[in-house]
Amino acid sequence: MTDLPPLDQPNAYVVLGPDDQRGPYTLELLISEVVAGRLQDATPVWWPGIGDWTTFSANPAVAAEIQRRRSGAQAPTNAFAPQPQPGQPQAGQAPQAGADLQAATAGADVSSSGADAAAAPYDQASDLAPIEVEPTAADFEAVGRPVEGFRAGSAMGLDPMHGQNFADLIRRSRARAEAAAMVEQIDERFTESLLSATNTLGLSMTSHSDEGGMHDMQFEDSGGGSLSVSLTQITGHLVADPHGHVTLDITWSTSGYEGASSTDTGEHGEIVVTAGGPDAISTASVSLLLALEDYVSADHIVDTKALERDFAAVAAQLAHSLEGWDQADTD
């Protein structure tokens, strides 16, 4: 009998029907139930040490032990199920799929001591318990990419290792989901800070669209001036990049400017003024790069006060360049 696995260790599992996997039990108990006719020889079974699910008749050592017992002593008493009650399986029948596990194992010694030492088949209840995850740079990089779906096989053909692999997949999926939520929250904080800054300057938003990876917003003040803002949308790639930055393009437009156009080339940080004359629209615009590390901490907390400060400074400077708007008029 040296080829037999340990019969007294509760680490064997059986499948009694669709989505009806049970265990752990001792092989001693399960073999006794097969001999008694309450489990079929073709019942799927698994225990640590075999690569995939088998059946009692397909494993030579177990099949030989069952045959030895059938040709010897009288079959043991029922240890796998209680005395039948109305509506329950009768003696000689395997418990049907979906039957209550406690009723099916009444009187059986199914202590789980030592069962955790080896990989067990997939246990949905434990694998789906809350898991603490910490998104990595790779998770942020993957935000927005399509994720390949997981397709489980039937219980009969399920390798026990798939349970652990599925649990790992859940952890990775949750990490990606948490990273995506962080990215979305950071992006929201940037736009909220821009709205707060323009509000303090007496500007009201008239339109907002998100296309081509940009937030495009329009604002107006009570004096007829308008502000156009184009801000890069935050992505997982930007958050993962230690040198990630967003582009901020702002243009202030107003009438009544009597000055001349600027001679600046529009290089980084230069305000370009285009004069339209006293009765036409003149504009002042600037393009800047905002480093995420200046506003987003290592634990992904956004410094909204710093964003509001810088957004307000840019808008006010552009308006002042045209001398067509005075913040004091809004106080």
Protein traits:
disordered C terminus; 30% helix; alpha+beta; 4-stranded antiparallel beta sheet; rod-shaped; 331 residues; 6-stranded antiparallel beta sheet; 2 domains
Structure, described:
A hairpin with a 6-residue loop joins strand 9 and strand 10 (281-291). This protein has 331 residues and is of the alpha+beta class. It contains eight helices and ten strands. It folds into two domains: 12-97 and 104-110, no CATH class; 187-330. Helix content is 30%, strand content 18%. The protein starts with 11 loop residues before the first strand and ends in a 9-residue tail after the last helix. The strands form two sheets. It has a six-stranded antiparallel beta sheet with strand order 5-6-7-8-10-9. A four-stranded antiparallel beta sheet has the order 2-1-3-4. The chain has helices at residues 27-36, 60-70, 101-104, 124-127, 137-142, 161-200, 236-240, 304-322; strands at residues 12-15, 21-25, 44-46, 54-55, 204-211, 214-220, 226-232, 245-255, 272-274, 281-291. The longest helix has 40 residues, at 161-200. Helix 1 (27-36) packs across helix 2 and helix 6 runs parallel beside helix 8.
